Each structure stands twice: as C-alpha cells, then as structure tokens.
C-alpha cells in the first residue's frame, strides 16, 4: 500500500507542467520543511517567494554621443597650413609702394580739380578757337615788304629779292635784285651773255632819273639790281628803253595795294615779311 502511495506521489511530481519555469532565486533559497507521510519524509510545498530578480535591460547610451564622436573624428586636424581668413592679409600679401599711393592721390586730386574748373577750361578753349585770346597782328602800314625766292635749273642757281616800299599801304618804290650763279668753266659763256644783256639795259635807262640799274659780274656770279621810283616815272619812256635792251618792265604801278602785292608774291612761292621804315 505504501509502495502504491509512493509511486502515486512520484507520478505527481513527474507530471509537473514543464512550461512553468520555477522561479527560484539562487542567491536566496527558501528553506523547505519536511513532511512525514506514512513514515516517509515528503517535502512540503512552500509558496514560492517572488523577488524582483528579473534582469533589467541595459539601456544603451544616447546616439547623440556616438554621433558627436563620429563628427569629431571627421573634423580635420590642424596639422597642415591653416588658410587665412578673408578679412586678414595672407602671408603672400605685398602692400602697394609709396610711389603708387602718391600717384593715386595725385591722380584723384587732378581729377577733382579738372571737374571743378571744367567750365573755365571750356570757356578758354572756346575763346581760343574763336580767336578772342589772340592778340591782333598789327600790320605795318608804312614800311617795307621784303619777298625772297630761290630757284635752280640744270645750269644756274637763282636768288630773287623784291623790296616794296610803301606808305599807308600804297606802293611808292620798288627794288629788284637777281643773283645768278653758275660753274665758272662750264657756264662761262652763258654767264657772259647774261652780263652783256644787263650792261645794255643799264645804258638804256641812263637818261631816266626814276630808274637805276646796276650790274656786278664776278667769276661765276652775276648780280643785277634794279630800282624804280614809281611816283614820277614815265612808263612810256621806260617801256621803250627796256624794249631796245631786251628787258622786261616790272608790272607794278604807283599806289598799288601792298596787301594785294603781298598776296600775289606769296602765291608765286615767295616768302614775304613786313618791316618798318
């Protein structure tokens, strides 16, 4: 009988639900009082003491620390050269020289002065273009008009000088000088012919008081000088004398405008200048 009870007890123990895990605190075991049944000590079931032995989950550190650590690891170190800020000069900056600074200030000062005085400058330019600032050239109404010209051909060099004496811009006297130069050996014959013609013309006017002709012939050069006092000159007598000697009467009359004569002489290539008597 006892054996059957024991077997029944062992069967009850073995039929414990395996899905229910015993909650036994290994560190604090609960004592069990033995129970004697039928001469066999049986353990008395004791209500299990539940303690807060459930392991608490370990809370992970916030991700911010890990992210901050990653960012710090990505920041480049200052092992290399650090670029200079934009508002500070770099080590390669070279300041402008004193000469450039002075020239810059001088240019701006000049520009300001030009703008300030621009109206006056414009007025001065206008006056200069219109001729207001030019002093009027005073024409000499009583004096001499001297005109010169140099010419050459294959054989001779010619030097012409014409002097017009005038009063109140009216012609009164005329002096013509011609110098002919040539080679003393090659052009001797032609120079001789010119000298003989000058001598004939000089003789043809000997009886005309208002006309004087002088010939000066040296080696390789002939100078012929004619003077006319136009106020009382008899032009008919002059034409006759020149025609016999083969000369040409100057085409000027007493009282001709000296301004017109000056203009004609300049147009013929002469260079003319006025001077006082």
Compact summary:
The chain is of the alpha+beta class. It has helices spanning 2-14, 63-74, 98-116, 118-130, 188-204, 235-245, 258-267, and strands spanning 34-37, 40-43, 143-152, 157-167, 170-181, 211-218, 221-229, 271-276.
Provide a descriptive summary of the structure in words.
This protein is of the alpha+beta class and about 280 residues long. The chain has 7 helices and 8 strands, in the order αββαααβββαββααβ. It has helices spanning about 1-15, 65-75, 100-115, 120-130, 190-205, 235-245, 260-265, and strands at about 35, 40-45, 145-150, 155-165, 170-180, 210-220, 220-230, 270-275. The strands form 2 sheets. The protein has a 6-stranded antiparallel sheet, with helices on one face. A hairpin with a 4-residue loop joins strand 3 (about 145-150) and strand 4. The protein is elongated, with a radius of gyration of 70 Å.
Key descriptive features of the protein:
two-stranded antiparallel sheet, disordered N terminus, single chain, six-stranded antiparallel beta sheet, elongated
